[in-house]
Each structure stands twice: as C-alpha cells, then as structure tokens.
Amino acid sequence: MIAVAFKSKYGTTEKYAKWIAEEVGADIYPVDEIKADDLEKYDTVVYCGGLYVGGIMGLAFIKKNYWKFRKKKVIVVAVGSTLKKGDAIAEIKNKNFSEAMKTGVKLFILRGGLNYPQMHIFDRFLMFLLVTSIKFKKQSNLDDDSKGILATYGKVVDFTNKKTIAPIVHAITKV
Ligand SMILES: Cc1cc2nc3c(=O)[nH]c(=O)nc-3n(C[C@H](O)[C@H](O)[C@H](O)COP(=O)(O)O)c2cc1C
Question: Which of 24, 60, 136, 138 has its CA 20 to 30 A from that of 166?
C-alpha cells in the first residue's frame, strides 16, 4: 500500500501529489492532517513538498518520524520553480535530509510555477530581496537557479507537467 503526503502553499505541489497518487493508486493526505502512526499500514511513503528558500516545506514530519518509516520505501519529491541539475540537487539533499535519510531516501525535484500577482506580500518581498541580491552578482557567473529566478521575476509561469512524474512512478512501483 502506498501513501502520498504533501504540503503546498500555492497548489503546484498538491497538483503533482494528486497526479502521483492517481497514477499509483495511493491514498493521499495533506501532511498537516496526519500523524506518523496513520502511515503505519503503508509500505511506501511518498512525501511531496514545495521548495522555499532551499527548504522542502513540511519535510520535518518525515525527518522527525523517519525512524518509524525506516523499513518502508520513502521517496521525497521537492517542487521548485527553477530547473535543477547535479550539484543543485545534491545541495537540496544535504540541506534537507538527515544522515539516515541521505542513504535511505530517494529525492526527486519537479518544476512548479510562480504567480507573482497572486503571491502573498511577504513572499513577494522575499523574492524582491533575492532578485536584488542576484542583480548585485557578476552576471556572467550566475548559476542556473539565479538565471531562472531572474527570467521569471514578476511573471505568471507554470512549468507543471504530468509527464515529469514518470521516474517517480517508476521508483514507487519497481520492486
Ligand atoms: C518566497 C519564495 C521562495 C522560493 N524559494 C525557492 C527555492 O529556493 N528554490 C526553488 O526552486 N523555488 C523556490 N520558490 C518557488 C516555489 O518553489 C514554486 O513556486 C513552487 O511551485 C511552489 O510550490 P507550491 O505551489 O506547492 O507552494 C520560491 C518561491 C517563493 C514565493
């Protein structure tokens, strides 16, 4: 049995969580509405969380309870706005995973979106600070993340794509 738990602020992570759950026939729960013991009956737990300033939203639930989940297959899906490759993925793992999770848990990163006009004022301010700090850097040395943030600043962008869940579905279903 498979459980998908998620935490999403603007809906893109929830969309992916629903797509994944549908595809693999999983039960789906907002992480704030469950306790670790509610997941006891499942042999696979997929956690989906939005990426905010490098942190995976709500992942504390998995971290705190990982000792209870250690015999299960645990997969984490982080949803961010920029395209992540090699080093950037390793960085997210380092920042968010406990030592035990680093060996036992697979991390996938998917692309969500940004909707500046509908963004909470505090989030918009954070993005303004981030963009300002990027603009002060040497533009020829910018990493992919920074370039992505600049290119989408102030816009409405939606990179969600159902096809991109394929490797996750494969990781969930393979024995
Ligand atoms: C304040 C703020 C910080 C963000 N930080 C990151 C980040 O560090 N890395 C990233 O890839 N995306 C970042 N994003 C983009 C979100 O991850 C993206 O909008 C994602 O789709 C949000 O998921 P949600 O719709 O489920 O909340 C940030 C967005 C906001 C508003």
Answer: 60
